[in-house]
Task: structure prediction
Amino acid sequence: MNTSTSHPHMEPGMPKKQGLYNPANEHDACGVGFIANIKNEKSHVIVQKGLEILTRLTHRGAAGADPREGDGAGILTQLPHTFFAAKATELGFSLPEPGHYGVGMIFFPKNKGHRNTCRSVIEQTIVEEGNSVLGWREVPVDAVAADLLDSVLACEPVIEQVFIARGEGFADQDAFERKLFVTRKVVNIRVRKIGFVDVAKFYTASLSSRTIVYKGMFLSHQVGAYYLDLSDPLFASALALVHQRFSTNTFPSWELAHPFRMVAHNGEINTLRGNLNWMNARRHSMQSDVLGEDLNRLWPISNEGQSDTACFDNALELLYMGGYSLAHAAMLMIPEAWAGNTLMDDERKAFYEHHAALMEPWDGPAAVAFTDGRQIGATLDRNGLRPARYLITDDNLVVGASEMGVLDIPEEKIVKKWRLQPGKMLLIDLEEGRIIDDEEIKRKLASARPYRKILGETQIQLEDLPDKIPTMPPNHEVLLQRMKAYGYSQEDLKFLMAPMAISGQEAIGSMGNDNPLAVLSNRSRHLSNYFRQLFAQVTNPPIDPIREEMVMSLTSIIGPNPNLLGMNDNTPHLRLEVHQPILDNVELEKIRYIDQSTNGKFRTITLSLCYPVSQGVEGMKPAIDALCAAAEKAVSEQYNIVILSDRGVDADNIAIPSLLATSAVHQHLIRQGLRTETGLVVEAGTAREVHHFATLAGYGAEAINPYMAFEVLYDMQRSGLLPDDIPRDEIRKRYIKAVGKGIYKVMSKMGISTYQSYCGAQIFEAVGLSSQFVKDYFTGTRTQIEGVGLAEIAEETMQLHREAFAHSPGYRNALDVGGQYAWRNKGEEHTLTPEVIAKVQHAVRTNNYKLYKEYAKSINEQNGRLLTLRGLFKFKPCTPVPLEEVEAATSIAKRFATGAMSFGSISHEAHSTLAIAMNRLGGKSNTGEGGEEPERFKPLANGDSMRSAIKQVASGRFGVTTEYLANADQIQIKMAQGAKPGEGGQLPGHKVDARIGRVRHSTPGVGLISPPPHHDIYSIEDLAQLIFDLKNTNTDADISVKLVSEIGVGTVAAGVVKAHADHVVIAGHDGGTGASPLTSIKHAGSPWELGLAETQQTLVLNRLRSRMTLQADGQMRTGRDVVIAGLLGADEIAFGTIALVAEGCIMMRKCHLNTCPVGVATQDPELRQKFVGKPEDVINFFMFVAEEARELMAELGFRTFDELIGRSDLLDTNDAIRHWKSQGLDLGPLFHRVEPNGTPVFHCDKQDHGLDALIDNWLIKQAKSAIEDKKPVIIETKIRNSDRSFGTMLSGKIAKKHGQAGLVDDTIVIKAKGTAGQSLGAWLSRGVTIELAGEGNDYVGKGLSGGRIVIYPPEKSGIVAEDNIIVGNTVLFGATEGECYFRGIGGERFAVRNSGAVAVVEGVGDHGCEYMTGGTVVVLGGTGRNFAAGMSGGVAYVLDADGTFESRCNMAQVELQPILSESDALEDYDHQGPDMEMHGRVDIEHSLSQNDQQILHTLISRHVHYTNSAVGKKMLANWADYCGKFVKVMPVEYRRALQDIETEKAAKEGKELTHG
Amino acid sequence: MGKPTGFKEFAREGLSYAPVADRIVHYKEFSSLPEDMSRQGARCMDCGIPFCHNGCPINNLIPDFNDAVYRGKWREALDILHTTNNFPEFTGRVCPAPCEEACTVNLIGDAVSIKNIELSIIEKGWEKDWIVPEIAEHKSGKRVAVVGSGPAGLSCAQQLARAGHDVVVFEKNDRIGGLMRYGIPNFKFDKKVIDRRLTQMRAEGVEFKVNANIGVDIPAKKLLEDFDAVVLTGGSEKSRDLPAPGRELKGIHFAMEFLPMNTKRVLGDKIPADQWISAEGKHVVVIGGGDTGSDCIGTSNRHGAASVTQIEILPKPSANPDKLLVWPNWPMKLRTSTSQEEGCDRDWEVNTRRFVDDGKGNVKAIECVRVEWKQENGQWKMSEVEDSEFELKADLVLLAMGFLHPVHEGMLDELGVDKDGRGNVAANTDDYRTSLDKVFSAGDMRRGQSLVVWAINEGRRCAASVDEYLMGHTTLPR
Result:
């Protein structure tokens, strides 16, 4: 940012927190790589190659507003002794032997005075710690050669190296190294204390006797150019660890670049807040033999506001310096998924189980490369959410990186190509001179101590303790009073609890949320309602907790944690383990009296949350203070489990809300450093729904006993609200199961997989709580717009109590009606009331603008019933302009879009009516994620078009073919949706009729699930790749990314724009038309006003705004909404629910049941006939909205919409209509207008996608005759890893011209050699064959649409193909047709969501064929775990050489069958198997009677034909032996559906015969 | 909740009625509920927006009790019903059921029979003896006078008594119930239904004083002195007259003269022959097309009228208005009441010019003219159709054209309370307070002529305001 010259008042570097922009929201992701000589032979070549890897990873990084502005890059090497020795000599001092000195790489402020002060702190500290300073060296740099921008130079530090001689008194280099670590920490603390404010901050990049880090705010190629040292031939190292950063912000600072002192990280730590808290909480319980007294001088281990990787590095370093080996420390922080892993040997499981009590996992997607200079290694998170490939050469080089092809290494030198697998580690010990594989590292560590035996002595399983008798529940009347006191409503029973107890699952609802936020509601709301669940979008993926359950764990450890650094402690620390954190009443009593069963080793104290109601609202604060003091005292008296209980509420006593009490105590104990010395269990009458449990867990509860919920459920059964035939135990179990599943979902939304790391992780944003309140009791949680404080929270509790114990005639037997899930007259307010719906429908049907205005008024004016944040807004007085000078309503309407509602969730009638209306208006309709019938791409006879301008691409990739994409004006990547951010959609089987099945390439009657994550987007650079892929399929279409409002969404949006999105949607939490779990509808995400304002502010700060279009979405209703969205920054506005209402939806909220009575959200043919909507109705509505907007524009003095965009300064708070709860809100941050400094703040510019330089342009030219005249061509070319999405643009051109039918097979044959970049052959059209001699990276054949991809190793290759990896992760994701032959092994999630392609591969990683709905996959080798998870269609043939396949297959939805020959199959059905030949395309239409043997044989033959596969040949040669070793993986649902189809067909044929 | 697909599976089944010939010979109720109410409950869709719940003036929790009936949970249904409605047995009989017009199934087919479900619940409650007094645990010591014992007065009194206040209900007539007692014929609304409810209210501590016409028999000021609060629920009893020539002739009566007298006789009172208004053997003309008109028709037929003709000045509405343009609102549509079904001629767009004398001071006919309605500047204007005069034979003319406003003479005049532009007692629906301290008003006296269900609603809500006024806070539902 060129700020120092143009606006001197602003500091360069990271901007200050302003408005809703907060630098703390920064995310990053990146490319990481390393190279090492196994034998520790140091050379300059290694450094050069390291830098080359960096350059070849450039596409994984990002540039800011100016393409020359990098996000940060760097390199870590061993100390180059020869080089430094020479330099020291030049400077007049001499270096001792290696190992006897250390070098610090120091970034100094530019200010000379500050610099000198820092320098003397360093020198003084070095001496104090017992070492001495040998000398200083200015690090030579060349900013000009590196082509650094002014903005980067503005924060460029002065970089110097300090040389430290090892003092006497150090036993060995390790001790010296530890001291250097302590020195660095102490220096850091001392300098921070001085409190310099400098543009370039003081920072120690490294200080070690073994390694050194050169890094900065660079693009990758600038590292070598900037640091002259790195090109000195004397600069030698045996290892180089490099990193290129992709930051969401463009304000990266020099110190945020990787590598850190020990790690470079590609990923994100989702549980950071919790990890930091827990780290601090350990302060008093941590002791170290090796660090001794020094340990106390290291705090804080991490500074607030550091990046996640920096914190991770700090923690890893502490563990390492505290005595753990590098590998051990990494396993402690990123453990494998062990809890549910049946394949893991017991010794290793015990190791992990033992370590689980020491530290919660640092959870999140991660590929971490780490080194101490002696060893270098890398590990992957438990779910393998980041790619990491490596190769080994015959001259002892190991090269690892996020992708293959980062160095040109002669093929014949390579002896092994492999990948890091989920949870696995690669370690190279340079001193031992060998690679230690995962198995060996872990076996060695796991057997180092008898962990199983130690566990047997220390780990108490709750279930093993003797039963205790729980408290007897009160009678119905008393129970009812308490239910009222805890705020139970009738809806809680009906909508939430009954479904949980009956089905063991959380209930589903639909049509979003139109209730007010808790702070705007006039009613008492549960405290948890002020907390919005955060969720992962773009920068890291949500997890699929159902299909990938194996990585999830609810295990909770209650009670004191052992000393983290006491790895050799011999005194056993008892730990109490529960398999899941929801305790029933018996379990709670076991804990309450645990001292009896543990000889007093555990001692539990129960603290009551109740205080006399007579103390009133003012009584709550002293009650909390007293509770915290009591908890502290209890811990100091060696009570190691504290139960917080709100039992005891009666007419005279009121309880502190359990969430408030839990968090207050948790935070208090953390502050006292005592938290890890005790367990926190909550006995909560207030907890009943998933969100309540999630908040309690997120704020520190290790276990929760919802005693009231159980009592209520039993009472419900007594009064007939639950079926009689479910035993009471079963009701309780199902309810607990449903809560557990719900917690999984909430955790996985944020990409967190274990309860232990979720506990205390505070994955929430407070909306409507005052910062003081949050600071006091929910420390560290972010709250942006202030709101209620303790007084109001106490008043809400008090109100409930009053109502509960008052004598209220007529209501004695009744709970509050609620009104959250369905409109109720005396319940919670809704925007869409009966009057509103009736008015707007009557208005559009009669084209009555006056009636529309009445409708708009009832929504816009929220006097007395606040509904939305914007309801509290008002416009500042302006000079109006005449109405006739304002741009026409027809022109404003072009900015409108309808929300993404899939054909499938809504009927054809409802879907196409919207499309026709939007096309007539010149706005845009959205396909939703269900594909679109190709017939709709052609205009109708009357000139109308049913083609949706926006084609959505969601995680399910249903019907996302090349033709579909080629027919888009805009392609929208749905990262999240308002109703259920962080979750995938689902279409129940009864809505998938033949037509829907056809469009979605799936089988009728089989339910469809979209995965929570896009399996090709686990990070921002992955999103950039998908944007690139899609842009290639249709170069004319804009690429849009849909995000959901939450804190930090602005920063995510900035990253998305840097990833070259043309268009970003910010959706509110409240939108949503489809079916979602109720928890998600209600509690995830935030209002669009917040997200939109933050996005606008962040984009303007980043100077990225004008190149993109910003769209706001979420319960938009009126022209005023449109104008407000515009003022807050939106170019466009999307309408979901209300567009449906305009065409007849009456908010039945029955979309998930297929019973929509007005034919909107149903596929029932009878009900579809009830659809009455007309395009004219929709058009009338949008013209009314535009007209209303126009009138407001005139009042505000704007002639064009562009002028008003971003004029948030014209908004103000309407103080007149506040009420007691909304009084404290501060909307100022929303209205903050970032100074644009002359740059446009609306869309008026273009993204540069860099398509011109692509090899596909050349391919298209070569294939011109083929595309135009269908003449076959053969093209030969080299390919390298920077050639991404190879063949995709070519395919887009074919699809545009020839549709999905494409060209005749093999019309275009491309023979390529080398390592392909990501997404080789993405959306490859029919008629194109890519034959690659070399290897592929991730996403080969993504969205394959009829083309053929063949990959085999190059001729010269010395490796054994079937033992080595040939394609990366997520191959064939969303493929709809086509075929692939890979001679070698594929990575994780092979053929995920394949719906029609045929593939042969020689082995796959974990999660193979996940979510597959069609197609055929043949695996000629081993598979990873969790094969076929969520697979509902298609067939896989897997070689099961040793009969163990079943243990690795997810059997939830599939069955394994032998490979039948035709004669076998004919026993069941008398059909012919498909006839397949060697030439032309293979087409397999599955049937029950198919000849599997023949299919398999043919496919293997083809595989051999195309790839010359050795295994394939072997199998064909011994077919009789091999055939029996294959198993057929058959989805149960699919078999049933095929059966139905055949029965129907048979019936039809029979009928025709009789009629014939 | 009902059954998700119930509306597709089951047909609406309404009340069944005794044959016309059988029923017009007595004054007893003649309808009966379907056997299987559960199936009717199953037809409810449990809408995300239950339009019925809003269409219902008293906001009955309709989906909730429908569901309870579907599940056979009658006791629960009764509790749900009583949370919003003190007297479901009243509304279950005489409410025109705007809820059913608003019902979502009505948009695409036949509405859920909500009113019958309501009736079935409350009658089950009485049958099972589930309806017991809810006696206040504590007495407040405050005294409240309620003037007028119609549905507004009764619901107000019941709520206040349950809140612990001493309530005295004053009624100018000889029996409690107001217009429900005497305005609605027994064959539509058996008066025992009121009586059994009164036994509950007496047990709850409500005192009833009949023949106590405030402002006439007892000075209104006395109430202000004796009570801590006074609630005016005297109804809107000033009938709309038809000041056409010949109005003074004998045989022309307000419906509210004809109907009460008949009910008194049905209830066992002796009516002197010279006062008795009989339709027996007469040609009866009922002027006014509303419910009261229907009541006159039913009663006249039971008297044995020679013919009954009903005329209405407004146009004949469509039998099937476009639901897309009116639903969920109350539609103007052609409805046929059970009384009309029992035999009468109906004519629309007819204006009465004059009453024709038989020469003995009795009416013998009315002279009518056809009118037509046209919209001008958004206002409907009526004009007579040229040469369309005709005569209707009429020995008995019953005027059933609604009510203007409360009777002003007596209590209201004495109190000098403020009135609104339409002559009703001025008070808003937030607190129901009149211009006078401690005086409240609810029901038709405040809002003008309306439905029983509105009256109950206002009475309840007014009670909450009174309670808050007396105690400083209230737990009564609004």
About this structure: The CA atoms of residues 114 and 196 of chain A lie 7 Å apart.
